[in-house]
Specification:
Growth Hormone, Chain: A, 83% helix, mainly alpha, 419 residues
Length: 419
Amino acid sequence: MKSNDWDVAYEWKAVVLLALGFGLVGLDRWLIAPLFPSIMRDLHLTAQDVGNCIGILGLSWGIFAALMGGISDKIGRRKVLIPAIIVFSLLSGFSGLAGGLMSLLAVRALMGVAEGSFCPTSFAATADASHPKRRGFNLGLQQSGFALFGLALSPIIATQLLSVMSWRGVFALVSIPGLILGLLMFRVIREPQAAPKPVATTTARGNWRDVLKSRNIRVAMAALFCAMTGVFVLGAMLPLYLTEYLSLDTQHMGVVVSAIGFGGFIGQFGLPGLSDLVGRRVASIVGFAGTAVMLYLFRGLGAQPVELFAVLFVASFFTLGLVSLLSGPVATEAAPVGMLSTAIGVVVGAGEIFGGGVAPALAGFVATHFGIQNILWLPISAVLLGIGVSLLLEETAPAILRRRNIRAALELPAAGRPD
């Protein structure tokens, strides 16, 4: 599609549908966390089992985000997006049929395959549909759907629905919107006119080698691991921390945990927006430092729902903002030409495998062997490491680079004048 004949109506339809789709990814992925106290009683699970259920989805998500990002660059977006949203919606409903740990693990692993395939492909489809002037805003809008639906609304939806139905019924009910959205996407989403073909001439091995040559891609992979450790350990274990250690009731727990999503929703606009002004590197350092301070304060609070919500809101603003910053502007500005989805998939895949896969399982081990009250040390340690990793980022924010070029141009004549 030519820039002088841009279809704005299609752009907004596509972006809204893709944002809702990524929101449902978040809802289906995180709905299980506030349901875990009920599931644990029925299926006789331990905290380690909870961490493994969250972790196995993250592992399969990460692997297939890396794989399918490159594949969608070759075969097109629709062939990945539409089957993926239908499959993960059906599998979310099947989670309610689990009769034990192994069947629950199997369903969640398959969900990770579908959701991991949807993630980088949907980011690339949003970029394809967006006018270059609105690309950053649209990518932020789409990613914020994950925080709003998955981490803000799902604890409230789950805990309120539990008062009128079983956890199995909750899973069945929330699978329906994804099937409807899949039909709408089939009718609306279209392929970019010139997207996949040039990439198909490059071998898969060449794609990976070219992407990994970029220093910022490698740094973003490590930094996203640190940020996602914060997000996923909190999302997986806070319901147990609040109910078992601080003895909050289910409804208050749901409201407090929703702060992760509400703070993250704003952060996914706010921190990348701040990075346009102060630079990607500075914003990343600020994000990790802010998260560390807030989590340390959170750990010192008792059963005070309002204070817990407020501190967790700010922590999540920074943490989810980092996820959006690292997988959005940092990854896209470092991507080789024609390999946008591949680059996003590599960064997201690494973050998911370690931050979304290994870290929750490790948190389950910590909770089982050292007590649920000690799980917060894991995300605190990860975000402190993230400060050091962020120092390695090379600045790519266009406004910062432009100011540097102007400053350099002004300094050259002065340097050339004799004293």
